[in-house]
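subagent[fold] <- orchestrator: predict structure for attached chain, return tokens only, no commentary.
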Amino acid sequence: VQLVESGGGLVQPGGSLRLSCAASGFTFSSGDMRWYRQAPGKAREWVALITRTGDSTNYADSVKGRFTISRDTAKNTVYLQMNNLKPEDTAVYYCHVLVLRTAYWGQGTQVTVSS
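subagent[fold] -> orchestrator:
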């Protein structure tokens, strides 16, 4: 199983970014996909979930209404569209999947929100 995140960068407050997570090594349509993030000095926290069918999503309260998770089964990719970014969104963002009760993580992509 391999998860490769991309799309991070430096953005001003109020700006937008779209993160991507390219997945391989498992049947993509069989796994719920999640995004997590970890800010400096803080524990990793869950951000968003999309079910394996893509028909249900869920978000942490801190990002609800600003972030949107989606998936493209044809491309084996999950996305996180982040709008109205705030300095407190600064973190390394990780893609996650559970396959046969084993958790897999990507290497992470840095998102920095600063003026």
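orchestrator: received. Logging for downstream: The radius of gyration is 13 Å. The longest strand covers residues 91-99.
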